[in-house]
Structure to design on (259 residues):
């Protein structure tokens, strides 16, 4: 009932114009703690259409709407290396640095992305993960920059940092939509931009933006702040903890031998 009330409130908040999308999140803050193992986010919303548009669809059989949801993590610089065999040994030979690469990227859709979004629309709005990693972001002289971009994309997909969630968005009666997206345990701090696109005939009709804020909490937050504010004290603390851990392991091993 609470979710239904939220959706009805979203519909009421929209102006009376055709083809608009509005959305919300089950939570917009995620706390990183020592036992954090990931978090599931419910993304939901509604499509507002006026009576004329509904009548027009019934008489002309226009194409149905699709919804695309993109969650993009904080951007960071990434070094990408290429290995080659030299004298029988695999070594790093070429490298590039890619600026502003999303740390996390998930695309959830009502149908496979390539079927509902045209290549031109994908390039214009930079929806797919391939559009988030582009050779223009590279610094460094290499013969074929596109190879490095493709390699990084494969690595991120293999590590489940980039997700293609086809048919994860459930659209009910062409009005209400929802999707459950699992955020991994290895999140970094920052704002995770959430973009929702209303799509028809390969084109974006309307879009809506919000964000999920990820932040360290508790002892992890204190250590993080200490490392930046008091690096010397942080180093001393790390050394003391290492000595204590080493002494404890040695004492335990000695007790086990004597026992």
């Amino acid at each position: 009932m609470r979710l239904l009330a939220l959706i009805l409130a979203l519909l009421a908040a929209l102006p009376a114009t055709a083809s608009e999308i509005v959305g919300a999140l089950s939570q917009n803050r995620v706390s990183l703690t020592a036992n954090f193992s990931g978090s599931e986010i419910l993304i939901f919303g509604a499509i507002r259409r006026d009576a004329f548009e509904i009548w027009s669809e019934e008489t002309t059989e226009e194409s149905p709407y699709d919804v695309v949801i993109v969650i993009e993590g904080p951007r960071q610089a990434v070094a990408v290396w290429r290995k080659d065999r030299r004298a029988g040994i695999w070594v790093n030979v070429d490298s590039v640095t890619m600026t502003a690469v999303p740390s996390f990227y998930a695309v959830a859709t009502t149908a496979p992305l390539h079927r509902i979004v045209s290549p031109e629309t994908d390039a214009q709005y930079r929806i797919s993960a391939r559009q988030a990693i582009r050779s223009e972001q590279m610094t460094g002289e290499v013969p074929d920059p596109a190879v490095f971009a493709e390699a990084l994309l494969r690595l991120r997909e293999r590590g489940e940092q980039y997700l293609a969630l086809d048919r994860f968005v459930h659209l009910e009666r062409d009005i209400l939509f929802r999707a459950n997206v699992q955020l991994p345990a290895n999140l970094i701090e920052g704002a995770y931009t959430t973009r929702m696109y209303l799509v028809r005939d390969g084109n974006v009709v309307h879009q809506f933006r919000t964000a999920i804020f990820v932040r360290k909490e508790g002892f992890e937050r204190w250590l993080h702040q200490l490392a930046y504010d008091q690096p010397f004290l942080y180093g001393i603390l790390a050394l003391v903890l290492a000595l204590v851990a080493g002494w404890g392991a040695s004492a335990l091993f000695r007790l086990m031998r004597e026992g």
Notes: The longest strand covers residues 89-102. The two ends are 62 Å apart (CA to CA). The chain has a mean pLDDT of 81. The helical segments are 2-13, 51-60, 113-116, 119-125, 129-132, 145-158, 219-229, 231-258.
